[in-house]
Amino acid sequence: MRKAEIKAWEDGILQVSVPMDPPLRWVNSYIVTEPEGGITVIDPGPHTAEAELAWQGVLDELDLSWDHIRQIFVTHHHPDHYGLSGWMQARSGSRVWMSERAHAEARMSWGAEATLNESLPLLFLRHGMPEELVQGVREHLESFLTQVTPQAEVSYIDAAVPLVLGGREWTPVLTGGHAPGHVSLYEAGSGLMFCGDAVLPQISPNVGLQPGSDPQPLLTFLEGLRMLRSLPVRRAFPGHREPFTAWAERADSLLRHHEERLDTAAQLLAGGPQSGFAVCEALFRGRVNSAHQLRFAMSEALAHLAELVRRGRAATLTAEPGGPLLFAAAER
Protein backbone atom coordinates (compact mmCIF):
# COMPACT_ATOMS: atom_id res chain seq x y z
CA MET A 1 0.00 0.00 0.00
CA ARG A 2 1.26 3.46 -0.93
CA LYS A 3 1.30 6.14 1.73
CA ALA A 4 -0.17 9.55 0.96
CA GLU A 5 2.42 12.31 0.86
CA ILE A 6 1.70 15.60 2.63
CA LYS A 7 3.24 18.89 1.53
CA ALA A 8 2.64 22.25 3.24
CA TRP A 9 2.00 25.41 1.23
CA GLU A 10 1.18 28.98 2.16
CA ASP A 11 -1.95 30.07 4.04
CA GLY A 12 -2.44 26.79 5.88
CA ILE A 13 -2.94 24.72 2.70
CA LEU A 14 -1.77 21.10 2.73
CA GLN A 15 -1.38 19.10 -0.48
CA VAL A 16 -2.21 15.41 0.01
CA SER A 17 -1.15 13.03 -2.78
CA VAL A 18 -3.74 10.23 -2.71
CA PRO A 19 -2.92 7.00 -4.59
CA MET A 20 -5.04 6.09 -7.62
CA ASP A 21 -4.84 3.71 -10.57
CA PRO A 22 -2.36 4.18 -13.45
CA PRO A 23 -1.58 6.01 -15.61
CA LEU A 24 -1.79 9.06 -13.32
CA ARG A 25 -1.10 7.09 -10.09
CA TRP A 26 -1.75 10.07 -7.77
CA VAL A 27 -4.48 12.66 -7.37
CA ASN A 28 -4.07 15.84 -5.35
CA SER A 29 -6.40 16.38 -2.44
CA TYR A 30 -6.07 19.52 -0.39
CA ILE A 31 -6.66 20.29 3.27
CA VAL A 32 -7.50 23.83 4.36
CA THR A 33 -7.23 24.52 8.10
CA GLU A 34 -10.25 26.26 9.58
CA PRO A 35 -9.92 28.99 12.25
CA GLU A 36 -11.77 26.94 14.89
CA GLY A 37 -9.44 23.99 14.42
CA GLY A 38 -11.34 21.84 11.94
CA ILE A 39 -10.42 21.21 8.31
CA THR A 40 -11.96 21.37 4.85
CA VAL A 41 -11.04 18.61 2.40
CA ILE A 42 -10.98 19.36 -1.33
CA ASP A 43 -11.31 16.40 -3.74
CA PRO A 44 -10.77 13.41 -1.40
CA GLY A 45 -9.88 10.97 -4.21
CA PRO A 46 -11.24 7.61 -5.41
CA HIS A 47 -12.88 5.10 -3.10
CA THR A 48 -10.38 2.27 -2.91
CA ALA A 49 -8.95 0.32 0.01
CA GLU A 50 -5.60 1.97 -0.63
CA ALA A 51 -7.11 5.47 -0.49
CA GLU A 52 -8.99 4.63 2.73
CA LEU A 53 -5.75 3.60 4.40
CA ALA A 54 -3.94 6.61 2.97
CA TRP A 55 -6.46 9.01 4.51
CA GLN A 56 -6.36 7.27 7.86
CA GLY A 57 -2.58 7.70 7.75
CA VAL A 58 -2.95 11.39 6.91
CA LEU A 59 -5.24 12.02 9.88
CA ASP A 60 -2.95 10.08 12.19
CA GLU A 61 0.10 12.04 11.00
CA LEU A 62 -1.72 15.35 11.54
CA ASP A 63 -3.13 14.23 14.92
CA LEU A 64 -6.68 14.66 13.64
CA SER A 65 -9.83 12.54 13.83
CA TRP A 66 -12.65 12.14 11.31
CA ASP A 67 -14.69 14.58 13.41
CA HIS A 68 -12.24 17.36 12.48
CA ILE A 69 -13.50 17.32 8.87
CA ARG A 70 -16.03 20.16 8.69
CA GLN A 71 -16.83 20.09 4.97
CA ILE A 72 -15.79 18.37 1.75
CA PHE A 73 -15.58 20.31 -1.50
CA VAL A 74 -15.59 18.43 -4.83
CA THR A 75 -14.44 20.21 -7.99
CA HIS A 76 -16.08 17.72 -10.38
CA HIS A 77 -17.72 14.31 -10.61
CA HIS A 78 -14.87 12.12 -11.89
CA PRO A 79 -14.14 9.16 -9.58
CA ASP A 80 -10.59 10.23 -8.71
CA HIS A 81 -11.99 13.46 -7.23
CA TYR A 82 -15.53 12.64 -6.11
CA GLY A 83 -15.33 8.92 -5.36
CA LEU A 84 -14.32 8.92 -1.69
CA SER A 85 -16.65 11.76 -0.66
CA GLY A 86 -19.55 9.53 0.41
CA TRP A 87 -17.30 7.26 2.47
CA MET A 88 -15.62 10.25 4.09
CA GLN A 89 -18.98 11.89 4.75
CA ALA A 90 -20.22 8.76 6.53
CA ARG A 91 -17.24 8.89 8.91
CA SER A 92 -17.15 12.62 9.52
CA GLY A 93 -20.78 13.72 9.25
CA SER A 94 -19.60 16.64 7.11
CA ARG A 95 -21.43 18.27 4.22
CA VAL A 96 -20.28 17.54 0.67
CA TRP A 97 -20.39 20.49 -1.72
CA MET A 98 -20.38 20.31 -5.53
CA SER A 99 -22.26 21.98 -8.37
CA GLU A 100 -25.74 20.78 -9.28
CA ARG A 101 -24.58 20.06 -12.84
CA ALA A 102 -21.65 17.97 -11.59
CA HIS A 103 -24.00 15.97 -9.36
CA ALA A 104 -26.31 15.35 -12.33
CA GLU A 105 -23.31 14.00 -14.26
CA ALA A 106 -22.49 11.68 -11.36
CA ARG A 107 -26.04 10.33 -11.35
CA MET A 108 -25.90 9.82 -15.12
CA SER A 109 -22.64 7.91 -14.75
CA TRP A 110 -23.35 5.62 -11.78
CA GLY A 111 -26.17 4.18 -9.73
CA ALA A 112 -29.87 3.60 -10.38
CA GLU A 113 -30.19 6.47 -12.86
CA ALA A 114 -27.01 5.67 -14.78
CA THR A 115 -27.11 5.59 -18.59
CA LEU A 116 -23.48 6.20 -19.56
CA ASN A 117 -22.29 2.59 -19.38
CA GLU A 118 -24.59 1.72 -22.28
CA SER A 119 -24.87 4.99 -24.20
CA LEU A 120 -21.14 5.69 -24.51
CA PRO A 121 -20.21 2.27 -25.98
CA LEU A 122 -23.11 2.63 -28.43
CA LEU A 123 -21.81 6.05 -29.47
CA PHE A 124 -18.35 4.60 -30.07
CA LEU A 125 -19.86 1.79 -32.20
CA ARG A 126 -21.73 4.35 -34.33
CA HIS A 127 -18.43 6.12 -34.94
CA GLY A 128 -16.57 3.04 -36.13
CA MET A 129 -14.90 1.52 -33.06
CA PRO A 130 -14.68 -2.29 -33.43
CA GLU A 131 -16.96 -4.32 -31.16
CA GLU A 132 -14.12 -6.04 -29.33
CA LEU A 133 -12.67 -2.68 -28.32
CA VAL A 134 -16.09 -1.34 -27.38
CA GLN A 135 -16.58 -4.29 -25.05
CA GLY A 136 -13.34 -3.41 -23.29
CA VAL A 137 -14.57 0.17 -22.82
CA ARG A 138 -17.88 -1.14 -21.44
CA GLU A 139 -16.11 -3.31 -18.86
CA HIS A 140 -13.83 -0.41 -17.98
CA LEU A 141 -16.81 1.88 -17.32
CA GLU A 142 -18.47 -0.72 -15.11
CA SER A 143 -15.31 -1.02 -12.99
CA PHE A 144 -15.76 2.52 -11.63
CA LEU A 145 -18.88 1.77 -9.58
CA THR A 146 -16.97 0.60 -6.52
CA GLN A 147 -14.80 3.74 -6.65
CA VAL A 148 -17.84 6.02 -6.15
CA THR A 149 -19.82 3.90 -3.68
CA PRO A 150 -21.34 4.98 -1.37
CA GLN A 151 -22.33 8.19 -3.07
CA ALA A 152 -22.59 11.30 -0.94
CA GLU A 153 -25.58 13.36 0.13
CA VAL A 154 -24.72 16.55 -1.75
CA SER A 155 -25.28 20.24 -1.07
CA TYR A 156 -25.18 22.41 -4.16
CA ILE A 157 -22.77 25.29 -4.70
CA ASP A 158 -24.35 28.56 -5.78
CA ALA A 159 -21.84 30.19 -8.13
CA ALA A 160 -23.11 33.63 -7.06
CA VAL A 161 -22.31 33.00 -3.39
CA PRO A 162 -18.70 32.81 -2.11
CA LEU A 163 -17.62 29.69 -0.21
CA VAL A 164 -15.82 30.17 3.09
CA LEU A 165 -12.67 28.07 3.49
CA GLY A 166 -9.98 28.77 6.04
CA GLY A 167 -11.86 31.83 7.25
CA ARG A 168 -11.74 33.48 3.80
CA GLU A 169 -14.22 33.88 0.98
CA TRP A 170 -13.47 31.99 -2.22
CA THR A 171 -15.29 32.65 -5.49
CA PRO A 172 -16.69 29.57 -7.28
CA VAL A 173 -15.74 29.61 -10.97
CA LEU A 174 -17.84 27.27 -13.13
CA THR A 175 -16.37 25.85 -16.34
CA GLY A 176 -16.86 22.70 -18.40
CA GLY A 177 -15.41 20.69 -21.24
CA HIS A 178 -13.33 18.38 -19.08
CA ALA A 179 -16.30 17.84 -16.78
CA PRO A 180 -19.63 19.70 -16.93
CA GLY A 181 -20.21 21.74 -13.80
CA HIS A 182 -16.55 21.81 -12.84
CA VAL A 183 -15.97 24.33 -10.04
CA SER A 184 -12.65 26.01 -9.30
CA LEU A 185 -12.21 28.20 -6.21
CA TYR A 186 -10.47 31.57 -6.50
CA GLU A 187 -9.41 33.89 -3.67
CA ALA A 188 -8.72 37.29 -5.20
CA GLY A 189 -6.92 38.75 -2.19
CA SER A 190 -4.18 36.12 -2.27
CA GLY A 191 -4.32 35.15 -5.95
CA LEU A 192 -4.71 31.49 -5.00
CA MET A 193 -6.77 29.07 -7.09
CA PHE A 194 -7.94 25.50 -6.47
CA CYS A 195 -8.41 24.56 -10.12
CA GLY A 196 -9.14 20.82 -10.03
CA ASP A 197 -8.66 19.54 -13.57
CA ALA A 198 -9.72 22.76 -15.32
CA VAL A 199 -6.06 23.69 -15.87
CA LEU A 200 -3.28 21.17 -15.35
CA PRO A 201 0.49 21.65 -15.60
CA GLN A 202 2.40 19.42 -18.01
CA ILE A 203 -0.61 17.32 -19.06
CA SER A 204 -3.70 18.38 -20.99
CA PRO A 205 -7.11 17.86 -19.32
CA ASN A 206 -9.13 15.39 -21.35
CA VAL A 207 -11.96 17.06 -23.27
CA GLY A 208 -14.46 14.42 -24.32
CA LEU A 209 -17.83 14.12 -26.03
CA GLN A 210 -20.32 11.99 -24.11
CA PRO A 211 -23.96 11.23 -24.97
CA GLY A 212 -26.52 13.04 -22.84
CA SER A 213 -23.94 15.60 -21.75
CA ASP A 214 -22.48 18.76 -23.33
CA PRO A 215 -22.80 18.49 -27.14
CA GLN A 216 -19.94 20.97 -27.65
CA PRO A 217 -17.40 20.16 -24.92
CA LEU A 218 -14.37 21.63 -26.67
CA LEU A 219 -16.12 24.95 -27.24
CA THR A 220 -17.12 24.99 -23.57
CA PHE A 221 -13.59 24.12 -22.49
CA LEU A 222 -11.96 26.83 -24.60
CA GLU A 223 -14.42 29.49 -23.42
CA GLY A 224 -13.85 28.50 -19.80
CA LEU A 225 -10.09 28.44 -20.27
CA ARG A 226 -10.09 31.98 -21.66
CA MET A 227 -12.17 33.16 -18.72
CA LEU A 228 -9.86 31.45 -16.20
CA ARG A 229 -6.83 32.92 -17.94
CA SER A 230 -8.14 36.42 -17.29
CA LEU A 231 -7.87 35.95 -13.51
CA PRO A 232 -4.63 37.11 -11.83
CA VAL A 233 -3.57 33.81 -10.26
CA ARG A 234 -0.43 33.80 -8.14
CA ARG A 235 -0.43 30.06 -7.45
CA ALA A 236 -2.72 27.31 -8.73
CA PHE A 237 -3.41 24.06 -6.90
CA PRO A 238 -4.32 21.46 -9.56
CA GLY A 239 -5.82 17.99 -9.33
CA HIS A 240 -2.70 16.35 -10.76
CA ARG A 241 1.02 17.14 -10.73
CA GLU A 242 2.43 19.96 -8.65
CA PRO A 243 1.05 23.42 -7.77
CA PHE A 244 2.31 25.99 -10.27
CA THR A 245 2.62 29.74 -10.83
CA ALA A 246 2.79 30.29 -14.62
CA TRP A 247 -1.00 30.46 -14.86
CA ALA A 248 -1.56 32.57 -17.97
CA GLU A 249 1.30 30.88 -19.82
CA ARG A 250 -0.16 27.44 -19.11
CA ALA A 251 -3.62 28.51 -20.24
CA ASP A 252 -2.16 29.90 -23.46
CA SER A 253 -0.31 26.64 -24.06
CA LEU A 254 -3.51 24.63 -23.69
CA LEU A 255 -5.38 26.96 -26.05
CA ARG A 256 -2.66 26.51 -28.68
CA HIS A 257 -2.64 22.74 -28.14
CA HIS A 258 -6.31 22.39 -29.01
CA GLU A 259 -6.11 24.69 -32.04
CA GLU A 260 -3.21 22.58 -33.33
CA ARG A 261 -5.21 19.38 -32.74
CA LEU A 262 -8.16 20.86 -34.62
CA ASP A 263 -5.86 21.65 -37.54
CA THR A 264 -4.46 18.12 -37.49
CA ALA A 265 -7.94 16.59 -37.50
CA ALA A 266 -8.96 18.86 -40.39
CA GLN A 267 -5.91 17.77 -42.37
CA LEU A 268 -6.90 14.14 -41.85
CA LEU A 269 -10.34 14.84 -43.31
CA ALA A 270 -8.77 16.57 -46.31
CA GLY A 271 -7.64 13.14 -47.44
CA GLY A 272 -11.22 11.86 -47.61
CA PRO A 273 -14.12 11.00 -45.30
CA GLN A 274 -13.12 9.37 -42.03
CA SER A 275 -14.92 7.71 -39.15
CA GLY A 276 -14.44 9.10 -35.67
CA PHE A 277 -12.47 5.99 -34.76
CA ALA A 278 -10.15 6.41 -37.75
CA VAL A 279 -9.45 10.00 -36.67
CA CYS A 280 -8.88 8.82 -33.10
CA GLU A 281 -6.33 6.23 -34.27
CA ALA A 282 -4.46 8.81 -36.31
CA LEU A 283 -4.43 11.46 -33.57
CA PHE A 284 -3.36 9.16 -30.75
CA ARG A 285 -1.40 6.43 -32.55
CA GLY A 286 1.06 4.73 -30.20
CA ARG A 287 -0.25 6.47 -27.06
CA VAL A 288 -3.26 4.26 -26.26
CA ASN A 289 -2.43 1.17 -24.25
CA SER A 290 -5.58 0.50 -22.21
CA ALA A 291 -9.37 0.73 -22.34
CA HIS A 292 -9.12 3.75 -20.06
CA GLN A 293 -6.87 5.61 -22.49
CA LEU A 294 -8.96 4.48 -25.47
CA ARG A 295 -12.14 5.91 -23.91
CA PHE A 296 -10.45 9.25 -23.32
CA ALA A 297 -8.86 9.31 -26.79
CA MET A 298 -12.09 8.44 -28.61
CA SER A 299 -14.15 10.97 -26.66
CA GLU A 300 -11.53 13.65 -27.30
CA ALA A 301 -11.38 12.91 -31.03
CA LEU A 302 -15.18 13.22 -31.24
CA ALA A 303 -15.08 16.49 -29.29
CA HIS A 304 -12.63 17.96 -31.79
CA LEU A 305 -14.66 16.71 -34.75
CA ALA A 306 -17.80 18.28 -33.26
CA GLU A 307 -15.95 21.59 -32.98
CA LEU A 308 -14.77 21.36 -36.60
CA VAL A 309 -18.39 20.84 -37.66
CA ARG A 310 -19.50 23.81 -35.55
CA ARG A 311 -16.85 26.02 -37.15
CA GLY A 312 -17.90 24.96 -40.64
CA ARG A 313 -14.62 23.17 -41.32
CA ALA A 314 -16.17 19.68 -41.44
CA ALA A 315 -19.50 18.02 -42.14
CA THR A 316 -21.12 14.76 -41.11
CA LEU A 317 -22.17 12.23 -43.73
CA THR A 318 -25.10 9.86 -43.53
CA ALA A 319 -23.86 6.40 -42.70
CA GLU A 320 -24.15 3.62 -45.23
CA PRO A 321 -26.36 0.73 -44.05
CA GLY A 322 -24.35 -1.08 -41.39
CA GLY A 323 -21.50 1.40 -41.65
CA PRO A 324 -20.18 4.04 -39.25
CA LEU A 325 -20.96 7.74 -39.28
CA LEU A 326 -18.36 9.65 -41.28
CA PHE A 327 -16.84 13.13 -41.16
CA ALA A 328 -15.67 14.95 -44.26
CA ALA A 329 -13.92 18.21 -44.96
CA ALA A 330 -16.51 20.92 -45.59
CA GLU A 331 -16.68 22.43 -49.04
CA ARG A 332 -15.56 26.05 -49.14
Question: Can you tag this structure with a few keywords?
Answer:
37% helix; 332 residues; 10 helices; Arc Repressor Mutant, subunit A
How does this structure look, described?
The protein is of the alpha/beta class and 332 residues long. The protein folds into two domains: 242 residues, 4-Layer Sandwich (Metallo-beta-lactamase, Chain A); 63 residues, Arc Repressor Mutant, subunit A (Orthogonal Bundle), CATH 1.10.10. It contains ten helices and 15 strands. Strands 1-2-3-4-5-6-7 form a seven-stranded mixed sheet. Strands 8-9-10-11-12 form a five-stranded mixed sheet. A three-stranded antiparallel sheet has the order 13-15-14. Strand 9 and strand 10 form a beta hairpin. It is globular. It starts with a strand and ends with a strand. The relative contact order is 0.12. It catalyses: 3',5'-cyclic UMP + H2O = UMP + H(+); 3',5'-cyclic CMP + H2O = CMP + H(+). It comes from Paenibacillus typhae. Counteracts the endogenous Pycsar antiviral defense system. Phosphodiesterase that enables metal-dependent hydrolysis of host cyclic nucleotide Pycsar defense signals such as cCMP and cUMP. This is Glyoxylase, beta-lactamase superfamily II.
Write the layout of secondary structure elements.
Blueprint lengths: L4 E4 L4 E7 L6 E8 L5 E4 L6 H13 L7 E5 L5 H4 L2 H8 L2 E4 L1 H10 L6 H11 L4 H12 L11 E3 L6 E3 L2 E8 L6 E6 L4 E5 L20 H13 L5 E4 L8 H24 L3 E2 H9 L6 H20 L3 E4 L8 E4 L3
| Mean pLDDT score | 95
Number of strands: 15
CATH homologous superfamily designation of the largest domain: Ribonuclease Z/Hydroxyacylglutathione hydrolase-like
Q: Remind me, CATH topology of the largest domain?
A: Metallo-beta-lactamase, Chain A
- C-alpha termini separation: 58 Å
Helix residue percentage: 25-40%
**Oligomeric state as shown:** single chain
**SS-based structural class?**
alpha/beta
Radius of gyration: 20 Å
- Give the ordered list of helices and strands: EEEEHEHHEHHHEEEEEHEHEHHEE
Whole-number count of domains: 2
> What is the 3D form?
globular
Beta-strand share of residues: 15-25%
Low-confidence stretches: none
The CATH class assignment of the largest domain is Alpha Beta
Largest sheet: 7 strands, mixed
Q: How many H/I helical runs?
A: 10
Strand order of the largest sheet: 1-2-3-4-5-6-7
Assign the CATH architecture of the largest domain. 4-Layer Sandwich
Pfam families: B_lactamase-like_C, Lactamase_B
Protein name: Glyoxylase, beta-lactamase superfamily II
InterPro entries: B_lactamase-like_C, Metallo-B-lactamas, RibonucZ/Hydroxyglut_hydro, Sec-metab_biosynth-thioest, WH-like_DNA-bd_sf
Domain Metallo-beta-lactamase: 26-240
